[in-house]
Amino acid sequence: MKKRGVLVIAHGSSKKDWVKLVDQAMGQVQFDGPLVTSFLEMVEGRTILDGIQALESQGVQEMFVVPLFVSSGSTHIEEISYLLGLEENPTIEIDEQPFPIQAKLHLCSAMDDHPLINQIVIERTRELSTHPETEILLLVGHGSDLPGFQEKWEQGMANLALRTQQELGLSAASFATMHPDNLNRRVKDLSLKHRVLVLPLFLSEGYFTRKVIPSRLEGLEYVYTGKTFLPHTLIPRWVESVLQEKVDQLLKAPLV
Fold first, then answer.
1. Signal sequence span per UniProt (predicted)?
2. Which residues of 106-136 are buried (b: 16+ CB within 10 A; e: fewer)?
3. How many CA atoms lie within 13 A of 34 on its CB side?
């Protein structure tokens, strides 16, 4: 059997605390083989190519790639697919050329509405809620202005919102995005008759959760702590889950 390894790819940040949270979570992932975390940008010496070379230098011949992104609607997923040679005709503009890779690659799913991610959303919402029957949950994601990508964002958020509403008995649940920017209008409309619980769908706290979201909601009535997916023990469990799903998928694939 070929030696297997895992390449986790996150966006990256200039803030060391952001990178540390990702590294701590990935350090808890249980996998029978080497695991390397790389970043699209802003983390020197830990690019995607650095990660590929680190795994191949350890003899990895079959590589499972886990995109540590909230939604499959992120344009970064297509960017990653192109750079890894898994997408020949991207619909977005990409400056770099595909990387030279010897190992066989398998791209896993983004977070989307995975049951473990939904558990985190339910937990974070429960922390905000006091009288669920009078409250509306509003999930906030980065979103995308591009057709095709926007729909994936909206589908994942809609599923998370509905399941969380049903689990907690909320009056209603919906979503808003930064792209297109409909956050202020949604909160303004919803807060007329309900207590609005605003929950950011972001991997880790940063500029958007600490600055952008509060600034766009200035003067409005809402409940918000800014807590994100990390830190949470279910994130490494999610990585293990999507890895197992991909392995199972390969086992069921017909031999060609």
1. none
2. bbbbbbbbbebbbbbbbebbeebbeebeebb
3. 18
Are 207 and 200 contacting, i.e. CB atoms less than 8 angstroms apart? no
pLDDT tens for residues 35-56? 999 999 999 999 999 999 999 9
- According to the model, what pLDDT value does residue 254 have? 67
The proportion of the chain whose per-residue pLDDT surpasses 90, expressed as a percent, equals 96
Query: Model's pTM, two decimal places?
Result: 0.95
The domain spans of the chain are 4-111+233-252, 115-217
CA distance 8 to 13: 15
Instruction: Give the torsion sign (CA, 175, 178, 181, 184).
Output: positive
Check pLDDT > 60 for residue 106: yes
In the structure encoding, which two tokens stand for residue 132, read together? 């669920």
Was domain 4-111+233-252 assigned CATH 2.40.50.140?
Answer: no
Q: What CATH number has the domain spanning 115-217? A: 3.40.50.1400
Which of 200, 192, 214, 182 minimizes the C-alpha distance to 137?
200
Number of helices and strands in the chain (H, E) = 9, 7
Q: How many Å apart are CA 204 and CA 226, to the nearest integer?
A: 9
Cβ-contact 107, 86 below 8 angstroms: yes
Residue 206: DSSP 8-state: S
